[in-house]
Amino acid sequence: MTPLNLYDVSREQLRERLGEWDINPIHVGKLWNYLYVRQVASVDEMSELPPRLRARLRDETTLGVLPAALTTDSADGFTRKFLLGLTDGRRVETVKMRFTGRVTACVSSQVGCAMGCVFCATGQMGFTRHLTAGEIVAQVVHVSRAVKLAAPAGTPVASTRVRNVVLMGMGEPLHNYDAVMHAIEILRDNTGLALGADRITLSTVGVVPGILRLAAEQRMLRLAVSLHAATQAERAALVPAARKWPLDELMAACRAYSEATGRRIFYEWALIAGANDTPAHARAVGALLAGTPAQVNLIPLNPTVGYDGAPTPVPAARAFQRILSEEFNLPSTVRQRRGIDIGAGCGQLAVTERA
Ligand code: SF4
């Protein structure tokens, strides 16, 4: 029988398992604390659990800690990229980003990606397999443990916590819907990693059935949609998935999500010089989104070897932003570019073995 990966189960599922083992479910709280607050690396460290429970855990479960094959730091010290090993020998990349006073974990949901966005290194790799919920959760634990290890002795636990998780690493999260939703349930548990609705961002290329399912299930999270173009023809050239899920269907699904949850949507726009960054493009996206609960995140393109587009210079990005704000009253940000020197920026993750 395949051992149960402890990161694969919710607290409720763990409680049920203890019941099946005829062990008092009261111990689930301490076990959960070992997994997600103390973040121990083995069952041997769970010394306060009853010996009978520890024996069961040793015999019938595994702690799916992901070993780091490679760790790379950006020159500015704000970004660290981990190449993490999976049990089948595959690898994924996970990124820790430090902004003022908070740490964000950017995690992967698949090995590779089937969506094939032209400017994305993961898309250029193709698709290998989905990650399990436990493999997604384990990435957050890995980042969290790294933060704790790096903190000076005596740092309060609260200030070493991972504050935000973004599902923007390798893979399309809505293509791996069930595992991703289960992982989110585990991440949100308020006695563990305690990442609330506004702390988890799910980024999708525009998988319409997945967005409609999020709406129907009223999933509370920060939904980020990679738009990149405001006409069907231009979008389909950058994002092949747009041929399957056209722009009008995508916008209808986004409206459904906002109506069902009352939440605004973050539209991601990779600014590519000469391709989608002119005032006319700004007005097109402004007209598309005006009056909807939206924020546009402008991200000057990050370089990848398989695509020769260039990032929009900062003054043109600011001009784009001014049009959105002054002519369409649309909030927007120009994203800080982080970790570009170590291939850890948006669209750059691709399981590199060397820095
Ligand atoms: S941008 Fe996202 S959806 Fe597109 S290929 Fe890359 S990982 Fe996949």
Describe this structure in words.
The protein has 355 residues and is an alpha/beta fold. It folds into 2 domains: 4-62, DNA polymerase, domain 1; 68-342, TIM Barrel (Alpha-Beta Barrel), CATH 3.20.20. 35% of the residues lie in helices and 20% in strands. It has helices at 11-20, 28-36, 51-60, 121-125, 133-150, 177-188, 208-216, 232-238, 241-244, 247-261, 279-289, 314-328; strands at residues 4-5, 61-62, 68-73, 79-85, 91-99, 102-106, 110-112, 127-130, 162-167, 200-204, 222-226, 265-271, 294-300, 332-334. The strands form 3 sheets. A 10-stranded mixed beta sheet has the order 3-4-5-6-9-10-11-12-13-14, with helices on one face. A two-stranded parallel ribbon has the order 1-2. It is globular, with a radius of gyration of 21 Å. The chain starts with a strand and ends in a 21-residue tail after the last strand. The model has no long low-confidence stretch (mean pLDDT 92). The protein binds iron/sulfur cluster (SF4).
Main attributes?
355 residues, two-stranded parallel ribbon, 2 domains, binds iron/sulfur cluster, TIM Barrel, 10-stranded mixed β-sheet, DNA polymerase, domain 1
> How many strands?
14
* Alpha carbon gap, first and last residue: 39 Å
Number of helical regions: 12
Q: Biggest sheet: strands side by side, in what order?
A: 3-4-5-6-9-10-11-12-13-14
Strand content: 15-25%
Might you state the CATH topology name of the largest domain? TIM Barrel
List each distinct ligand once: iron/sulfur cluster
Q: Any idea what the CATH superfamily of the largest domain is called?
A: Aldolase class I
Q: Largest sheet at a glance? A: 10 strands, mixed
Q: What portion of residues is helical? A: 25-40%
Q: Mind telling me which CATH architecture of the largest domain this is?
A: Alpha-Beta Barrel
Low-pLDDT residue intervals, each spanning 5 or more residues: none
Q: How many structural domains are formed by the residues?
A: 2
User: SSE order, as H and E?
Assistant: EHHHEEEEEEHEHEHEHEHHHEHEHE
The structural class is: alpha/beta
Q: What is the averaged pLDDT score?
A: 92
Radius of gyration: 21 Å
Oligomer: single chain
